[in-house]
Amino acid sequence: MLKILSLSLCLASFSLASEVDLNTPSRAVQSYYDAINEGDLNSLSKVMVKESYDTDVQVYALSIALKNKEFHKTLKQYSESETAKQSVLQAVEKKLQNRKKRDIVINKEVPIGKNRVMVRFSENLKPKQLYLSHHPEGWKIDYLAGRKTN
Q1: So where are the chain's domains?
Q2: Residue 116 in 3-state DSSP?
Q3: Pairwise CA distance, residues 28 & 60, whole Å
Q4: b/e burial code for range 32-70 (CB count within 10 A of at least 16 → b)
Q5: What is the DSSP string of 57-74?
Q6: Which of 4, 28, 76, 145 is least crowded, fewest Cβ atoms below 10 Å from its Cβ?
Q7: Which of 59, 60, 37, 57 is nearest to 48 (CA)?
């Protein structure tokens, strides 16, 4: 009976995780917002390039650190200490899970170069845009994909 209960809980938590779809830029942006709305950092890391993911985590963590001096010390060690990194990730996950959910409507995809796209959308009726680049796994959020190149 205990094994069945454990298996059921495991399957339930698996089904609650965000499903990442990187097949198109628009689907990747939707997956990004699904992951943020659910506080699912594992899915968020799959839909973003590493540098952009680290930037997002640190921005969310900074908002926590501004209110908590001890956490600020932990955040400073994010890149050097695995323990600090796990502590920061847990705090960010909790913050995302407790914040108000954001709704988006995709407006259009705009090619901006070879294997780079800008997706224009609205978040809670406010115009926004995200940059993506294409990788072997599919389209990923890449803040640097919007930079000018020669």
Answers
A1: 21-146
A2: strand
A3: 20
A4: bbbbbbbbbbebbbbbbbeebbeebbeebbeebbeeeee
A5: HHHHHHHHHTT-HHHHHH
A6: 4
A7: 57
* Inter-axis angle of helices 82-98 and 25-38, nearest 10: 90
In CATH terms, 21-146 corresponds, of 1.10.1200, 3.10.450, 1.10.3470, 1.10.600, to 3.10.450
Percent of the chain with pLDDT over 90: 82
**69-76 helix and 50-65 helix, angle to the nearest 10 degrees:** 160
Query: What is the residue whose two structure tokens read 């985590």?
Result: 57
The answer to whether 145 and 131 have CB atoms below 8 angstroms apart is yes
**Which position has the higher pLDDT, 10 or 57?**
57
Q: Considering only the C-alpha atoms of the chain, give the largest distance between any 2 of them, rounded to a whole number of Å.
A: 64
Residue 61: name the closest of 48, 51, 72 by CA.
Answer: 72
Tens digits of residue pLDDT in 105-146: 999 999 998 899 999 999 999 999 999 999 999 999 999 998
- Shortest CA distance to 40 belongs to which of 82, 101, 84, 83? 101
